[in-house]
Amino acid sequence: MGKSVVGYCGLFLTLLLVCVSGFHHGNLPVIPFDEGYTQLFGEDNLVVHRDGHTVHLSLDERTGSGFVSQDLYLHGYFSASIKLPADYTAGVVVAFYMSNGDTYEKNHDEIDFEFLGNIRGKDWRIQTNIYGNGSTALGREERYSLWFDPADDFHRYSILWTDSRIM
Fold first, then answer.
1. pLDDT tens-digit readout, 99-122
2. I need a surface site. Which of 17, 67, 94, 162 has the fewest CB within 10 A?
3. Rounded to two decimals, what is the model's pTM?
4. CATH class entry, domain 7-161
5. How far from 3 is each of 14, 18, 166, CA to CA, in Å?
6. Do the Cβ atoms of 45 and 72 come closer than 8 Å?
7. Is 110 considered catalytic here?
8. DSSP assignment letter at 35
């Protein structure tokens, strides 16, 4: 990406259990949820577990739930352990993403995983998006069928963002 992108790590996960900071990766710091994140929506649909590092997110007939990091990041390692709902979820999108859309509303950058809703018996699909230089027209969207069932167990999804690469 041509310019330096300052975004926030916003983890918007609308269903089930997510471990936001409890994964130790080398010497990376681990902080409690309430010190690193703020709930965006969902009222009682976000519950912080006693360990302080794990949250339970749910979806009801009115709303899902979401949270966002309190700090801005130029680069970093961002990771979440996600277990998707096991049932009919057509029309539901569970997303783990980073964006600077709060700063640049109509001209933002974004890196994400989007888990598209599922119909029983069909393959699960994930969409990845990378938009840079302030334009969703200068990005790349890719869709993949998953070779495993993301509702069977937790799976770790990570983004390593350095000054020269995004993996």
1. 887 777 777 788 888 988 888 888
2. 162
3. 0.74
4. mainly beta
5. 31, 31, 13
6. no
7. yes
8. H
SS3 53: coil
List Cβ neighbours of 134 (8 Å cut-off, separation of 6 or more): 3, 104, 107, 108, 109
Contact, 130 vs 98, CB < 8 A? no
Instruction: Spell out a b/e string for 128-146, using b for 16 or more CB atoms within 10 Å of the CB, else e.
Output: bbbbbebeeeeeeeeeeee
> Choosing from 43, 105, 110, 142, which is the catalytic residue?
110
Residue with more model confidence, 10 or 96: 96
Q: What is the pLDDT, as a whole number, of residue 145? A: 92
Residue 78 has pLDDT above 80, yes or no: yes
Query: Which residue in this structure is represented by tokens 């916003």?
Result: 10
| Residues in a beta bridge with 19 | 54, 81
The CB-side HSE value for 133 (13 A sphere, CA atoms) comes to 7
Give yes or no: 114 in active site.
yes
Which tokens belong to 13? 């996960």
Is residue 130 scored above 50 in pLDDT? yes
One-letter amino acid of 107: N
Write down the catalytic residue from 43, 105, 114, 141. 114
User: What are the extents of the domains in the chain?
Assistant: 7-161
**Segments in 37-127 forming alpha helices (H):** none
